[in-house]
Amino acid sequence: MSTKKDTVLVSGGAGYIGTHTTVALAEAGYDVVVIDNFSNSEPSAIEGVEKILGRKICFKQVDTCDKEALRGVFERHDFSTVIHFAAYKAVGESVSEPLKYYQNNLVSYMNVLELMKEYKRPNVLFSSSATVYGNADVLPVTEKTPRQDATSPYGNTKQIAEDILRDCCHAYEGFHGIALRYFNPIGAHPSSLIGELPRGVPNNLVPFITQTAAGIRERLSIFGNDYDTPDGTCLRDYIDVVDLAKAHVAAVDRMTEGKMEAGYEIFNVGTGTPLSVLELVNRFMAANGVNVPYVITDRRDGDVPAVWADTTTANNVLGWKAERDIDDTLRSAWAWEKHVRSL
Ligand code: WQD
Q: Is 236 touching ligand 1 by the criterion CB < 6 Å?
């Protein structure tokens, strides 16, 4: 006999990671309430989730910065857990418009936490980022690697939000928090019904690659090949978005099944394997049989030469491990791009 699982509120659930996580939670047997204000996503993302699941989901268009609207969601739904994705995420834009980032990312987060406290909803899962490690002295980074001063307001909002969560878990009886530090999420669901939908010119590497392969961009710029790395291009830890979604399910299981060892826990969510920009581009071309014209240009301001995860804690404590083969991930990214172009 299976026991009924808790209900989970997913804020920012129409976004790239939110959609994949909603699918993974529903497939794992959780009831899901999804909210999004569509500020950086489209209603079609929710339709994609519903097509994959073969049924409607409980979705409400709500802005998490609107506390009274958010209160209505707390009034109507009896969830124990919130996964808070709703945030702006463009590093460069955060440098030119810091107040926009602090206002949106912190006010929405405070609203969620204050209402969780008021309505006695105990578990919060926060989307953090490997950006908190900055340019680490020792690689790979563990959860105990000291954080560095943030190099962008976006990164700073992640650090501040982690600290707020730590303090709440310390102060409020029964309050539990997990921060997942994502490395570089890439790829799309195998159905090609959901994926990343960047607006305008993509900032991130893989959407730029897929748009170049599709002929929308003339060529990819590889930002620097004079780093102190094996081929001179930056090293990152590219984590498949479906694997990343499953890490959220493992974290929700851990919170709702009372398995946490402390009120606040942090996990790195990566593969543990670094890949260079050049390697990634070459593997994308080989896996998909397509050409991606590129040029080497100057370094991009703020890029760290290398960062990848030590995943020991995620593997052994969270009980989660990245599984999808990188070539499958890169094929899914291309399949998604072709799907988007065919609409
Ligand atoms: C990866 C590598 C670039 C584009 C950022 C955030 C992080 C997370 C993910 C967000 C780097 C190189 C890129 C291009 C290139 N959060 N590159 N040409 O900077 O590692 O991480 O995104 O939502 O918090 O900081 O990811 O995909 O931008 O870059 O050569 O056109 O690809 O220099 O080495 P990054 P990215």
A: yes
Tens digit of each residue's pLDDT (9 = 90 or more) over 30-75: 999 999 999 999 999 999 999 999 999 999 999 999 999 999 999 9
Ligand 1 atom 32, closest CA: 205
In this structure, which residue's CA is closest to atom 11 in ligand 1?
234
Does residue 223 line the site of ligand 1, with CB under 6 A? yes
Tell the residue nearest (CA) to atom 23 of ligand 1.
89
Could you please report the per-residue DSSP string of 71-128? HHHHHH---SEEEE--S---HHHHHH-HHHHIIIIIHHHHHHHHHHHHTT--EEEEEE
Q: What angle do CA 316, 178, 99 make, to 5 degrees?
A: 135
pTM exceeding 0.90:
yes
Cβ(31) – ligand 1 distance below 6 Å: no
For ligand 1, say whether the CB of 159 is within 6 Å of any of its atoms: no
Average pLDDT, the chain: 97
33: β partners? 9, 58
Render pLDDT for 199-235 as a digit per residue (tens, 0 to 9).
999 999 999 999 999 999 999 999 999 999 999 999 9
Residue whose entry in the numeric block shows the structure tokens 């600290």: 163
